[in-house]
Amino acid sequence: MAIRRQRRSFPLVPFLISLLAVAAYGRLISDGMPATPSSSILASPLSSAAIRLNSSSPATAAAEECEQSYGFLPCTTTVFGNMFLVLTYGFLMFKAATFLSAGSELLLEIMGPGLVGGLLLPILGALPDALLVLVSGLSGTKETAQSQVLIGMGLLAGSTIFLLTLLWGTCVVVGKCDVGENGVAIDSTDTKGFSLTGSGITTDVQTSYAARIMAISVIPFVIAQLPKMLKTHHGERLAILLALIVSFSLVLGYCLYQVFQPWVQKRRLAYAKHKHVISGILQHAQKQALGRLLNDDGSANENVIRKLFHKIDNDDSRNLSRAELHALIIGINFEEIDFDKNDAVDKIMDDFDTSGNDTVEEDEFVAGMKIWLHEAKSKVAASGAYSNKFVNDYHARTREEHDQLVDRSDEAVESVENPGWCIAKAVGYLLLGATICAAFADPLVDAVHNFSNATHIPSFFVSFIGLPLATNSSEAVSAIIFASRKKQRTCSLTFSEVYGGVTMNNTLCLGVFLALIYFRELTWDFSSEVLVILLACVIMGLFTSFRTSFPLWTCLVAYLLYPLTLAIVYVLDFVFGWS
Prior knowledge:
579 residues, mainly alpha, A middle domain of Talin 1, Recoverin, domain 1, 2 domains, 3-stranded antiparallel sheet, two-stranded antiparallel ribbon, 7 strands, disordered N terminus, calcium ion binding, repeat, transmembrane helix, ion transport
């Protein structure tokens, strides 16, 4: 990713030690009498040689047994025990996704978009989901795999629908701005509260292209479902094989498209350059000895901002023209940062010119500078009063972010301090994340399966609701942070990545699932699950492919889709008996 986040170390080893400490599990047994405090004793694996279980029947003993993953990880047959294990393994999968994301960010910063941003990042982003889908039907007998594969389908459907409903709607809410008369959201202007029609978000046209790609990615689902739609058993394996081939072909095509059209990654670089221009202007104001831009309490110093306005306003017209802004940018030393000066002027106009008259008036300049300073405060923590050093620190921070995002791999390696160490660190993050995924995917699937048995809740619903929170939380937090900046550029980036995540679910993760079905000769019996995936992708795909502005009421459509899809699966499976 383009923008580095401060990473906190995770005490993984102590956590794993504490996890293994609960591996000694036990259960109450009795000597044939009803269990009472006086007649019950605790049996553990260590005492099994000395204490024999006097079960009422072999069936009862079998029902109480649980199988330890890898022969040593804890297991239980109780509801709360399995809930604890699901939460624990889910948290580990969340940390794995975080490590994979951190390693991907470092590689992108060092090597630039291209192959890394277009090929490696999408695959790494889908890796936790893909591994969980894989292990859901990889081990055990064919009957066990057929039962547990519902967990993989639940994750597949849950991740897609989570991204398109709950996350999509939340990004609209946190990114909303006032909608102008032309139907376009005005950047950084949010005065209409929660007006369903007066506020919303606007994306660029490239984001609608990503939505169209997402809509196309449902083709493998349709192919796999064709025999069911035609109500025939002939050609089922052929349909699965064809859908499998199409899935991985779409993965390859999508990655190649990202490699040769890396506009999502380039947007990040453009945004980093714009932030560096902002910080340069702020630093320039202080170097001109106009005064401190921030008061001691962190509020903007309007007097200094107005002094800066009059200094830039060479013709005393009380508004700033493009020529005056261009002269300002040329007069600032950006330390040989290469960027388009005219494009920088356009972006400043976008930030400041709220009236749309192609000039920046004094009040608009003050309001725009306040927004810039607020963003600077959110990026650089000041200790005590806000001194001149605060702006210098922000300028250094934006320069560092720009250097790490230069869109030329050779120069990018040179601009990063100690690139060899950074590459080793990135590889370490990726290996750690992949190892955790591989190690705990199977125990998590087992825990979900045991929790489903203990609560009598179908495993599909458990995985549909719970697992996407573990595997998509890191991306969700990042998307919400970007959307909260309330800019068209950042909203476009946010929704492009949401659509990209759904595309990888519908292609790579589905391809892994189809490979399980085909090579293990399992039965494809997921009509209701496929229907809700198609419903969400088609509705949101059509909804977002041909428009770029979304009023606030559109978030209600997304939110309502989530419970609707759950209700549809329940009714079709348990009322009409589809599965």
